[in-house]
Design brief:
- The protein is α/β, with parallel strands linked by helices.
- It contains 17 helices and 15 strands.
- The strands form three sheets. The chain has a seven-stranded mixed beta sheet. Strands 5-6-7-8 form a four-stranded parallel beta sheet.
- Helix 6 (148-165) packs parallel to helix 8 (197-204), helix 7 runs parallel beside helix 8 and helix 10 (251-257) runs parallel beside helix 11 (271-280).
- Bound molecules: zinc ion (ZN).
Length: 408
């Protein structure tokens, strides 16, 4: 049976497209057929066949925007590290906390010990919070399992979040996140397994949409990341990289060399890295909440990225250590305040550009004919108002693939 057209109305509708300035359409109409947008534009230009739908719209909002896309999260994990937060406030350093078995090791222990259902219950709560603030697509990484079974368990939970909530989930395999303590004497063997058998089996189970790694002096080096990238490329998997967060390891250039979808963090990115990303079309994924919570002072080179035409995206990096943030909209606001993005750059960064960072189609993240019907109805006058207010909830209806998946 053919799907019936459904219509939403809005005082204003914001969208961006590749190669064009963003538009704010007054008195807008949006028609959905099945899972796709059939029309998005001024109500006055609505094709005649759909005009009668205006008598009974599904809903009418002050503002409609594309659904937000959070393209960098670690939202599947067990336990909490609130105790470490308190210890840090009292003066403990990361090194002190790590020496007591805290930090990422604590999340790994808790995540390995949790059942799949326990992990899912905890992660759903966090995914629901993101969704309630406008997210319709979320990327979720493994990386707290750090052994084959626990990495696969995390990725299965990520898949289940998508089916439970009706939102889009893209997974990234991140076994090169940290070297687990028990492998300290057998580092090369760990890297071989993580790049080889573990990745191959997770991929064979259909759990991997992309491969990611943490290239940093306290994580993995260029040689190890290159090995992972070569394995991923042989499997036809797209790549992402945590790069230049705490120091310049020339990771962005390595990511660009492999045609990676994105290089993420980038506080210590240099001019060569910017140029390499521009040539490769690699998206610069900005993570302002981790910058804030680490009290980092080195800013990512926004002006250079802008000048080189590198698409910039913004993500929450939701994780239990450095970015326990449950709102992408708040991360967008921080990107403006801390990194100097314009309101339009922040919105493009959490819609169109974030879609590219996940390898989704060109139309994803924008409101246009034939694009996926992923959008949000907001109680707000403008995109700027949604970044200006901190900490409130403004989303009234969340639509993903043409289905209303949440209402306020
Ligand atoms: Zn991360």
């Amino acid at each position: 049976m053919a799907a019936l057209p459904r219509l939403w109305l809005a005082d204003r509708m914001w969208t961006a497209r590749w190669g064009q300035a963003a538009t704010l359409i007054e008195d807008a109409a949006l028609v959905v057929l099945g899972e796709q947008i059939a029309y998005a534009g001024p109500r006055a230009a609505l094709p005649a066949a759909w005009v009668e739908l205006c008598a009974a719209p599904v809903a009418q909002a002050r503002l409609i925007t594309p659904g937000l896309i959070d393209a960098h999260t670690h939202l599947v994990f067990a336990g909490s590290r609130a105790d470490e937060y308190e210890q840090r406030l009292a003066g403990a350093s990361y090194a002190d906390i790590a020496a007591r078995g805290g930090g990422i090791a604590a999340s790994v222990r808790a995540t390995r010990a949790a059942s799949e259902d326990e992990l899912l219950a905890a992660a759903l709560q966090r995914a629901r919070a993101l969704m309630a603030d406008g997210v319709t697509t979320v990327e979720i990484k493994s990386g707290y399992g750090l052994e084959a079974a626990a990495e696969a368990k995390m990725l299965r939970v990520a898949r289940r979040i998508g089916s439970e909530l009706g939102i889009r989930v893209r997974t990234s395999y991140l076994a090169l996140h940290a070297l687990p303590g028990e492998w300290r004497e057998r580092r090369a063997e760990y890297v071989d397994l993580a790049c080889g058998a573990w990745l191959a089996s997770a991929h064979a189970e259909g759990l991997v949409d992309a491969v990611d790694a943490y290239l940093e002096h306290l994580a993995f080096d260029r040689h190890e990341v290159r090995k992972l990238f070569e394995s991923a490329r042989a499997l036809g998997l797209p790549l992402k990289l945590h790069a230049e967060q705490l120091s310049n390891q020339h990771g962005a250039a390595l990511a660009a060399e492999f045609g990676a979808l994105s290089a993420d963090h980038l506080e210590y990115l240099d001019a060569d890295g910017v140029a390499a990303m521009a040539r490769a079309g690699t998206v610069a994924m900005l993570i302002p909440a981790a910058y804030l919570l680490l009290k980092e002072t080195q800013l990512p080179p926004i002006a250079a990225l802008r000048q080189a035409g590198v698409p910039m995206a913004v993500a929450s990096d939701l994780n239990p250590g450095t970015s326990p943030i449950l709102s992408l909209r708040l991360a967008m606001s921080l990107a403006c305040t801390l990194f100097g993005l314009t309101v339009e750059e922040a919105w493009r960064g959490a819609t169109l550009h974030a879609a590219r960072a996940l390898g989704l189609g060109e139309a994803t993240g924008c409101l246009q004919t034939s694009a996926p019907a992923d959008f949000v109805l907001w109680d707000a006058a403008s995109p700027a108002e949604l970044l200006y207010w901190l900490g409130d909830r403004r989303a009234q209806q969340i639509v993903c693939a043409g289905r209303i998946v949440a209402v306020a």
